Structures are given as C-alpha cells and as structure tokens.
UniProtKB/TrEMBL annotation:
<keyword id="KW-0560">Oxidoreductase</keyword>
<dbReference type="InterPro" id="IPR036291">
    <property type="entry name" value="NAD(P)-bd_dom_sf"/>
</dbReference>
<dbReference type="GO" id="GO:0016491">
    <property type="term" value="F:oxidoreductase activity"/>
</dbReference>
<dbReference type="Pfam" id="PF01408">
    <property type="entry name" value="GFO_IDH_MocA"/>
</dbReference>
<dbReference type="InterPro" id="IPR050463">
    <property type="entry name" value="Gfo/Idh/MocA_oxidrdct_glycsds"/>
</dbReference>
<dbReference type="GO" id="GO:0000166">
    <property type="term" value="F:nucleotide binding"/>
</dbReference>
<feature type="domain" description="GFO/IDH/MocA-like oxidoreductase">
    <location>
        <begin position="137"/>
        <end position="271"/>
    </location>
</feature>
<dbReference type="Pfam" id="PF22725">
    <property type="entry name" value="GFO_IDH_MocA_C3"/>
</dbReference>
<dbReference type="InterPro" id="IPR055170">
    <property type="entry name" value="GFO_IDH_MocA-like_dom"/>
</dbReference>
<feature type="domain" description="Gfo/Idh/MocA-like oxidoreductase N-terminal">
    <location>
        <begin position="12"/>
        <end position="127"/>
    </location>
</feature>
<protein>
    <submittedName>
        <fullName>Oxidoreductase</fullName>
    </submittedName>
</protein>
<dbReference type="InterPro" id="IPR000683">
    <property type="entry name" value="Gfo/Idh/MocA-like_OxRdtase_N"/>
</dbReference>
Length: 383
C-alpha cells in the first residue's frame, strides 16, 4: 500500500546490497540534491556499515531495516541477479518504489510478478542500465533522430574479453544459470538497441561454454575452481518490428578484449555509438558518398558530446523525480521486462536451434529533455 499523504521535497532512498557496484551508486546518489540516501543494507551488516560510513550515509542494517524505514520511499536493489525479483517484490510489498540493477529477474514469470504487483500498488519500477541516460548515448540518439545517417537499417555490437573471473573476487554468480555474458553484459547492448530501434520481433542464437570449469583469479580465493553453468559465448541475430536487424556477440571466452562496440548503419551513413556500459564516450559519424571514399580508409567525424559528468544512479534519480512529478521513468520496468524477454528468447533459441518470436513489446523510449541536470535541485531540497 502506498502512503496516503503525498510527500514533498527530496526522496528518501535505501540501498539493498553493498557489493562492488554500490560504490559508484553511492558516489552519485549522495551528490544528487533531489534524493537523500538514508540507509545501506546487506546480508553482511558490517559491510553495509563500512559502505554507509564511507559515503556519509546515516544508517545501516539488513534488508528488513530498509523495508521498515518510514522515510525510505525508493529502494535501490543491488543484490545478485538470482534474487533481484524476490527483493524487488518484498520492497513493493512494503510500499516502496524500486530501482533494480539489471536484469529485472532471471525468469519472465518472476519479473512479470514484480511489475504486476507494483501496478496494483501504484508504485514505480525502474531497471538498469541507466548508462543510456548519459550524454554520450543521448547525443548518439539525437544524431540518429536528426537524420544524420538517414533511415537506420542495421546494427552490430561486440563485447568480448577473458571474463570477470579475471578480476572479481567472487565471480561464481556471473557464470551461474541466468547469468553469463548474455545476462551480465547483454542488457547494456540489447537495451541500447531497444532505445534506437524499438521493440524486438525475433531472435536466433547460438551459445557455447568455452570451459566447463573456471578458477577465481583475484582476491583471497584465487585458485578456487567452480563450475560454469551458463553459455560463455553467445552470438545472436535479432530483427525489430520497425524492420531493422542486428547481430550481437557477447563473450567471456576471448583472449582479445573488444568492448563497447556499437555500430549503427543507415541509408546515408554509419554512426559509432559510445560504450553502452558507460555514461560518456565519443560519437563518430561517417558518410561515404563516392566510390573513392568507399575504397579508401574511412574518415570519421566527431559529433560534439556535452561535457557533463554523472553516472550510475541517474536512473534512480529520474524515477525519484517521477515519484514527485508523475510519469514513468525512462529506464522503465516495462522496458526492462522486454529486454529480459529478449534474453530469455535468446536462451530458448540456443536450446532449440530455432528462431524465436518475441511475445512482449515496449513503447518507444523517450529522450531525456535537453539540459537535463542530475545536480539540479528540482524538488526544493535546498529551500
């Protein structure tokens, strides 16, 4: 049940999950005037305490403490993917809006339940990635919508490197069922294409495991062997309801690192889009118009990108402003569900060897307003 008396001023925020990703969220959320981080929680309460004290957050505890806190309106769910839906559902049951790290859940059923529960309760759900709210990707979108490459026709994306066991002290969850590069990295690229092209129509994919076991390579557990459950190399071809097509490579099996490659080709040019795992980056454009140009080395033009600095947490801020002002967050739960449906369909295509038609769709994703500033006090917090 939602609060009966509408609130004003900054939105109270509580984090559930104090792992590696919480640092960047806390760096940013504690700098945004429109939100106030009131508590950090974790199953490991001392870890939550350390993060809270590091970032100047006044309270810490377990997840139940966040859910019971009367001034927390928005829960930022930074738990591992296997429990995203469970934690989000608990937050909704406690009357809280939810921002969840990706993916929304690891099954369609659990993710749909989160959204249905939120709708019945009149609560908002947002889902990472929010990197696409950054000035790099927003600039690329505006270039495409201006017609800089004509009519968009196709995309290629590539993400490949040796894998997160290279640096993560506890990487097992990234190789478990419902993870792998498809579910860990795929949301950035697949969501980017949904922003640009709209709803997916079909997917066809292959996937393999480069090794059946891996070893932890960093931290106190270095040398520990664990079983690989998810495909660690996935190649997927997708079509969109608007007629565009895309090919995507996601790999934890490549000795060569190649990350952040997103190429959009249109009838009149090609655009290189910034890494969708980052908030900034270069936007580059080419217009081959003659045979000589086509046969020579490609000449790229830089598209100016605003000099703005913000990072993870921007999507939670956008959601918080919607709590006060109405509307839906740009990185909405429904968009997150559609991307989850794409990933689940890719898994089904890998298993069956068949093309899978998507059952879900997503509304066109709006651009951020020109001049959107996460550091602006729009809710009277400084009054």
């Amino acid at each position: 049940m939602t609060n009966q008396t509408p609130r004003t001023g900054r939105v109270g925020v509580g984090l559930i999950g104090a792992g590696m990703i919480s640092d960047t969220y806390l760096d940013n959320l504690t700098s945004f005037p429109d939100v106030e981080v009131l508590m950090v929680s974790d199953r490991d309460v001392p870890r939550a305490q350390a993060q809270a004290q590091k970032h100047g957050v006044p309270a810490w505890g377990g997840a139940d403490d966040v859910l019971a806190h009367p001034d927390i309106e928005l829960v930022v769910n930074l738990t591992i993917p296997a429990v995203h839906a469970q934690v989000s559902s608990a937050a909704i049951a406690a009357g809280k809006h939810v921002w969840s790290e990706k993916p929304l859940g690891i099954t369609r059923e659990s993710a749909r339940q989160v959204l249905d529960d939120a709708a019945r309760a009149g609560l908002l759900v947002g889902v990472a990635p929010d990197t696409l709210l950054g000035p790099g990707f927003q600039t690329a979108r505006r270039a495409i919508e201006r017609g800089d490459i004509g009519v968009p026709l196709s995309a290629q994306t590539v993400f490949q490197y040796p894998g997160p066991d290279l640096f993560h002290p506890n990487p097992e969850f990234l190789f478990a069922a419902g993870a792998g590069p498809l579910f860990d990295i795929g949301p950035y690229y697949l969501t980017a294409l949904a922003h640009l092209f709209g709803s997916y129509a079909t997917v066809a994919a292959v996937g393999v495991k480069g090794r059946e076991t891996r070893r932890v390579q960093a931290g106190d557990r270095a040398g520990t062997e664990f079983v690989v459950e998810a495909p660690t190399l996935v190649q997927a071809i997708a079509s969109f309801t608007g007629g565009q097509v895309a090919q995507n490579l996601f790999s934890f099996d490549s000795p060569m690192a190649r990350m952040g490659y997103v190429e959009i080709t249109g009838t009149e040019g090609t655009l290189l889009v910034p890494d969708p795992n980052l908030f900034g980056g270069a936007v580059r454009l080419t217009h081959p118009v003659t045979l000589a140009t086509v046969q020579s080395e490609t000449e790229w033009l830089d598209v100016p990108v605003p000099d703005e600095t913000y990072g993870r947490g921007a999507g939670a801020l956008d959601l918080a402003r919607c709590i006060r002002g109405g509307g839906e967050p740009i990185a909405s739960g429904e968009l997150g569900y559609h991307v989850l449906d794409v990933m689940a369909s890719i898994e089904e295509s890998i298993a069956s060897g068949q093309t899978v038609r998507l059952a879900s769709s997503t509304a066109p994703v709006p651009l951020l307003p020109e001049g959107w500033d996460p550091h602006e006090d729009t809710l009277g917090a400084g009054a």
